[in-house]
Design brief:
Length: 360
């Protein structure tokens, strides 16, 4: 599901970068196809953002963010300038609707606009609207299921402005949670029996927000966001050691903190994270007909904090693993494998965005 800004020049799969902008930083991924359904990671890179540049998914300082985008583009070594970008799920209204299957493209567009006006709390001239025909409705061959997506125009325009200021051409605007699920879907294909019939819990724990997705046979059955993330750990480091926020971030990433850090700060934070995950699973059970989770995946910057996956697995009593979106891919000679192994879980969304190059 994506807001497309036009064809990719009519060429077949031209080079495309996935550009993920979050409150903590910018991440870039470029993939290529090297065989039937075989992908190669050409390059990846990240660049931190100053505090306040992006707040709650909104770009507050276009200059700071576009500077970071330009730096990450140069750092990556890519030559691709066409970009797929993502919108935070909280910024996008999505709704499944049922429409007659015999409508023309023009009739479908008109009908979608009419339906959208019922669900969107803004005037239609203030939003960017897109839709995707999912397929025929079960037991009703005269109807199709359509997913519509709408977001405020200025939110899209801010992201476009950031990319263009860095010399890039944004052609696709996806929803970050959809991009993440596209990357997960490629991984489930590698699991025994393609994880058929299994309920998979994806927890993306970023700087400010934990995004929860429950998936069954590649379909989303539950989604939720909770205000929790690595920002809380950084704040505790700032309070305890009297560091600036930026210093605390660097020392946290480099594991360069005093002896008491592990027991006094890190372990309590990991316990809190595990409680948040457990609570989210309980919410899932109480608000849906489902009563089990078969496999738990952790992604996002917090997933790579030492001890996170073990603490979550111990508390939830579930099989838990850290997601590497590049699993099973070939690696370009430019890719630093050691760095990739450490950082890969933070690139789930950027990887999913980069995969839009291969949409058929």
């Amino acid at each position: 599901m994506a807001l497309d800004f036009g064809s990719l020049f009519g060429k077949k799969n031209p080079p495309l970068i996935g550009l993920d902008i979050s409150s903590s930083g910018v991440k870039l991924v470029e993939l290529s196809e090297v065989g039937k359904n075989e992908l190669r990671l050409e390059c990846f890179a990240s660049e931190p953002l100053p505090r306040g540049a992006v707040v709650d998914g909104n770009i507050e300082n276009i200059d700071q963010v576009s500077d970071a985008v330009l730096r990450v583009w140069k750092k990556s070594g890519t030559r691709a300038k066409v970009a797929a970008m993502g919108m935070p799920p909280a910024s996008v209204i999505t709704k499944k609707i049922i429409l007659p299957s015999n409508l023309s493209e023009e009739g479908l567009e008109l009908q979608v606009e009419t339906e959208a006006s019922q669900y969107i709390p803004f005037a239609l001239d203030e939003v960017r609207l897109d839709f995707d025909v999912i397929g025929l409705v079960d037991n009703s061959p005269d109807d199709v299921e359509v997913m519509l997506a709408a977001t405020r125009k200025e939110k899209v325009e801010d992201r476009v402005a950031v990319a263009e200021a860095a010399g890039l051409k944004p052609t696709i605007m996806d929803i970050e949670s959809y991009a993440a699920r596209a990357a997960i879907s490629r991984l489930t294909e590698q699991m025994p029996n393609r994880a058929k019939g299994q309920i998979l819990a994806l927890f993306q724990i970023g700087s400010q927000v934990m995004h929860v997705s429950m998936l069954l046979d590649d379909q989303l059955i539950y989604e939720r966001e909770q205000p929790f993330g690595g920002h809380q750990l950084t704040q505790e480091i700032v309070r305890t050691y009297g560091l600036s926020y930026e210093e605390a971030e660097v020392k946290k990433r480099n594991n360069d903190l005093p002896d008491g850090y592990q027991t006094e700060i890190l372990e309590p934070f990991l316990e809190t994270a595990a409680q948040e995950v457990t609570r989210a699973i309980q919410f899932f059970f109480t608000s849906t007909p489902y009563t089990r989770v078969d496999q738990l995946f952790l992604a996002g910057g917090c997933a790579i904090i030492p001890g996170m996956v073990d603490t979550v697995a111990n508390r939830t009593k579930l099989s838990a693993s850290v997601v590497s979106p590049f699993k099973g891919m070939q690696l370009s000679s430019n890719v630093r494998e050691k760095q990739l192994r450490i950082e890969a879980p933070a690139y789930l969304v950027a990887c999913g965005l980069a995969m839009r190059r291969f949409d058929r």
